[in-house]
Amino acid sequence: MDGKVDRELGRARIDWSLLSEQQLLETTFEISCPETLEGITEQEPPDDDVSIEYIYRLNGRKQGKLRCVYCKWNNHYKGYVVIHRSGSRHLVGKDCGLTRFGISWQDDIRAFEAARERSSYLRRREAILGARSQVLSGIAELASAKCLSEYEDVRRQFRLAMPESFRALVAAASSDRKLFIEERVRDRAKEDSIKAERRNLTTTQRKKLGHIKPQYRYELILIGFLNGAGLFERGPSPRALIEEARDKAQTSLTKLEQTGLSAVQIRNISKQLEAAAEKLNIAIRKLNDLPIFFEIDNLRMIAKWANNRSNSSDSVNYVAEIGALRREDPFGERVVRYPSGYQIPRAAFLETLLGALRVS
C-alpha cells in the first residue's frame, strides 16, 4: 500500500490493521534505495501526522549510511520511511523516531511489523497452497510404491537368515554403526606377570611348574562401519512414516485453506508441514539405504561379523555374494537377495514443499 492510495481514501494515517489479505500480499514493506523514492526530502515533515510506510536495512551497501531528517547525521543503516498526508516522504532512524514521537512511535512500529509479518506468512500460505496438488499426489504415489513392500520383505528375510545376530545388527544400525569381532590374541602382559611371580620361587619350584604356557585373551576389533544402516535402525518403518506424513499434510493443508488466518496460525501450520516433510525425508533415506546395504564390501563385512558371532558348534557359515547374503547350516541354506527392479519414486514434490515453506 502506498501513500497515494491512502490519501485517496482521505486518511491522515495508514492503519495497517485494516488491510485485507490481498492488500497485504500486494504491499512492499522493505526497500533497498529509499532515497530514490518519489517525494523524498531531507526536510522535516510539516507536523507529526505521519505514518511508517517502509523499513530499510542497508548494512554493507557501497553508498553508505543515510541521513535522518531529525538528527541530521548520515549515520543510519537501518530505519523507516515515513509518509506525511501531504505526500512528502522522510527518512527516520529508529531511535530518532522514538525521541521525536515517543510511545506512539513504538505503537506505529508494532503495527507496521505485525502487518509485515502477516504479509510474509500470507505469501508462504499462498506458495504452499499453490503446491498442494503436487505435494498430495507425490505423497500418494510414494505411499503406494512397490519399494515399501520390498523393503519390508528384505528386512523379514534378514530376521530369518540371521536369528542369532539380528538384534545386534539393529543395535549397531541404531547407534554408532560400528561392527566389532572378537579375536584371540596373545596376552604378553599376563605372561610377564607369571614370570615376575616365579622369580621369587626356587629353581626346584620353577622346574615343577614347567614352562610358562602361552596366554591368550579375547579382544574386540573394529572391522568397519555399517553402510545402509537405515534398513535396520530402530523406529517407524518407511511405510508408517509416509502414512503419518500424509495424514499430517492433508490436515494441515485443509486448515491452511481457511481465510482470516493470523501469522501465528500460519506459522504453526507451517511447523506441522515441516514435521511431515521431515518424516518423508527419513522414510526416503531409509528406502535409499537398502541398495547401499547390499554393496558387496558391506555384505562381506557383515558376513565376517556374523560368522564371528556364531557359535562354532552350530556349523553356521555366512557367505557374501553380489547382491545377496547366504546362510549355510546343517539344515540347509537361506539366501537374502537384493530385490530386482527396486526403485524409489522421485520426490520432487518434497523440494517444492520445502521451497514453499521457506517463502517469506
Overview of the molecule:
The protein has helices at residues 3-8, 21-26, 94-101, 103-130, 132-143, 146-161, 166-173, 188-198, 203-209, 238-256, 263-293, 296-309, 348-357, and strands at residues 50-57, 66-67, 74-76, 78-84, 89-93, 178-186, 216-225, 317-321, 324-329, 332-337. With 360 residues, it is an alpha+beta fold. Strands 1-4-5 form a three-stranded antiparallel β-sheet. It is elongated, with a radius of gyration of 35 Å. The protein starts with a helix and ends with a helix. Residues 1-12 have low confidence and may be disordered.
Task: Summarize the SSE layout with pairings.
Layout lengths: L2 H6 L12 H6 L23 E8 L8 E2 L6 E3 L1 E7 L4 E5 H8 L1 H28 L1 H12 L2 H16 L4 H8 L4 E9 L1 H11 L4 H7 L6 E10 L12 H19 L6 H31 L2 H14 L7 E5 L2 E6 L2 E6 L10 H10 L3
Q: Which characteristics define this entry?
A:
360 residues, alpha+beta, 3-stranded antiparallel sheet, 10 strands
Helix amount = 40-55%
In sequence order, what are the helices and strands, one letter per element?
Answer: HHEEEEEHHHHHEHHEHHHEEEH
Mean pLDDT: 89
Multimerization state: single chain
What kind of sheet is the major sheet? Answer: 3 strands, antiparallel
Shape: elongated
What is the SS-derived class? alpha+beta
In the predicted model, the low-confidence regions spanning at least 5 consecutive residues are 1-12
Strand order of the largest sheet: 1-4-5
Enumerate how many helices there are, as a single number. 13
Intertermini distance: 18 Å
Q: What does the radius of gyration come to?
A: 35 Å
Tell how many strands the DSSP assignment holds.
Answer: 10
In terms of DSSP E residues, the strand content is 15-25%
